[in-house]
Amino acid sequence: MKTNLHRLILLLFFGLISHVSGVPNVAKPKPQHRLRVGDELQLSVFQEPGLSKLLIIDREGKVLVPKIKKAISLFGLTREEAAEMIRSAYADGFLKYPQVDLKITKIFREFVEVSGQVMKAGPVEIPIRGNLDLFTALTRAGGVTVFANTDAIKLKPLVGANETFTLAEVQGEKGKRLLKSGDQIMVGKNRVADTAVSVEGRVAKPGLVLIPKGGNLDLASAIVGAGGLAPDADPSRIELISTDGGKSSLFSDAAILRGSAGKILLEGGDRVLIRQSPFVGLGITVKGAVSKREFMPFPLNGKLTLKAALTGAGLSDLARKKKVEVTRGGKTMRFNMKATKSEVWLQPGDAIRVQK
User: Fold this and answer.
1) Does residue 318 belong to any structural domain of this protein?
2) Among 36, 176, 192, 271, which has the highest number of CB atoms less than 10 A from its own CB?
3) Looking at 106, 123, 155, which one is the last position of a domain?
4) pLDDT by residue (tens digit) across 244-281?
5) Number of separate helices (H) and strands (E) present in the chain
6) Residue 17: enclosing H or E segment and its boundaries?
7) Taking the mean position of all CA atoms in its chain, how far away is CA 24?
8) Which domain covers residue 331, as residue numbers?
9) What is the CATH number of the domain that holds 316?
10) pLDDT in tens, 136-168
C-alpha cells in the first residue's frame, strides 16, 4: 500500500515539474510612462467637443480641464490612470456617463548641461525611467579633454549651493550624486590650455603641439607638428573643435594643405581630431581583361570612379571598353566607357568585370 502511495506521489511530483518546465517564457510588458511636469496630453470626451483641450502638466503636477474648477493632479500616473482620474471628475455631477480619451502628445525631456573641457559639450538627457548621476553625465559627455582642470569640476545645481569635485571624486563615491533637470556641470581649463593645441586620433604623433611664444600656430602647422596623418586616417573629415568645446568645423586634408583652411590660426585649448577612415579594409574586385585581377582597396576618402578603377587595374589590349559590367547587391549594370561621359561612382563591395 505504501509503495503504491509513494509511486503516486512521485508521478504527481514529476508531472508538476514537467508542466511547469513546459510553460513558455512570457516577456514582461514594458513599464508604462509615468506622467511628469511638462508632459502634454490631448483630452477629448465622446460627444462633447467643447471639452477637447491640450493639457500641459504644470510644476505642481496638475492640469486644469474644461468645466472642472479644481485642478487635477496627474503626476506619476499612467495614461490610463490619468484618463480615469479625469473621467471620475466629470462623472461627479457634470456628465452622467463620460467617455474620456487621453493621448500623450509630447513627453517632456529633462536635461543636465555639461560645458567646458569635455569631449562632447552640450545637454545630457535624464532617462525618462531612471536617474542620472554626476559620473554618468560626465561619461555621456565623452569624458574630459587633455586641457581639463581635473581638480575643479563644478556642479551648479538649479536649486542649492555650488559644489566642486576632483575627477577622482567623480569617479568614486561622490560621482553617484543624483542630478536634476537644469543642473549644470562645468569643467574648466588647466594651465597648459593657454599654450598648446591638442592633435588627437589618427596622426603619427598624437598629443600636444605647443604654440610658439610670441607667435602663431595655424591648422596645417599643428597637423605637421603631430607628424601628419596616419595611413588609415580619414582625409575628408578633419575636425577642429574650438577651446570652448561648443564650436566644431570640418575640413578636408586637401583644403588644409592646399587651401585657405590650413592658414586658420589656432588658440590655446583648441583640439584637432582626425578619425580613422570608415573605408579601411573595404574595396572592390576587378576581373576580366585587366592586368591586375584582384581586390582593389577603396580610397580612404570614399571617392572612386569606374574610370579610375579601370585605370588602376590596367586595361589589357583585348579589353572591350564598350562592355564593362558593375555588379552591386546582386544587380548588374552595364556601361559603354567609350560613350559614357558622366562619372560612374563606385561603392565598396562592387564587382567589376571587363569583357574581352
Assistant:
1) yes
2) 271
3) 106
4) 656 789 999 999 988 899 999 999 999 999 999 999 99
5) 7, 20
6) helix 2-21
7) 36
8) 283-354
9) 3.10.560.10
10) 999 999 999 999 999 999 999 988 899 999 999
